[in-house]
Amino acid sequence: xxxxxxxxxxxxxxxxxxxxxxxxxxxxxxxxxxxxxxxxxxxxxxxxxxxxxxxxxxxxxxxxxxxxxxxxxxxxxxxxxxxxxxxxxxxxxxxxxxxxxxxxxxxxxxxxxxxxxxxxxxxxxxxxxxxxxxxxxxxxxxxxxxxxxxxxxxxxxxxxxxxxxxxxxxxxx
Length: 173
Known about the structure:
There is one protein chain. The chain is mainly α. The protein has nine helices and two strands. The protein has a two-stranded antiparallel sheet with strand order 1-2.
């Protein structure tokens, strides 16, 4: 049945779906089978064991400590939403056959995760440098308020003093 549905010309409009960050879980499952959720109602999918099996597995992997994080759930309406990129990365990780368009979203999710990790490391390194500078300035200017030291450092390195203040503490060392 899944083959018949997939070959009936109801493949997803990927240029649309890649711009929808948090579709319903069943829509993500449909996309993983290269079926356009807009053209086939959820109940019709339940006729296919492959769709049903994937939906059961996806739901079993949703939760706070699990691979898929629900971004929104409506218990009355049964609406479960997940990040499409996160879902795509999970599909790739577990090795389900999936359309190349969906797998490309997994690669984008990986790249975004790497970029976030890189930015976090850079921010932490910058904050450590600022903290060292604030500690030096505090030693050179005992009794000066933290905000004054942040202003001094901001003039020196061109950053906003409020940002320095949020990311440093007086008397850290």
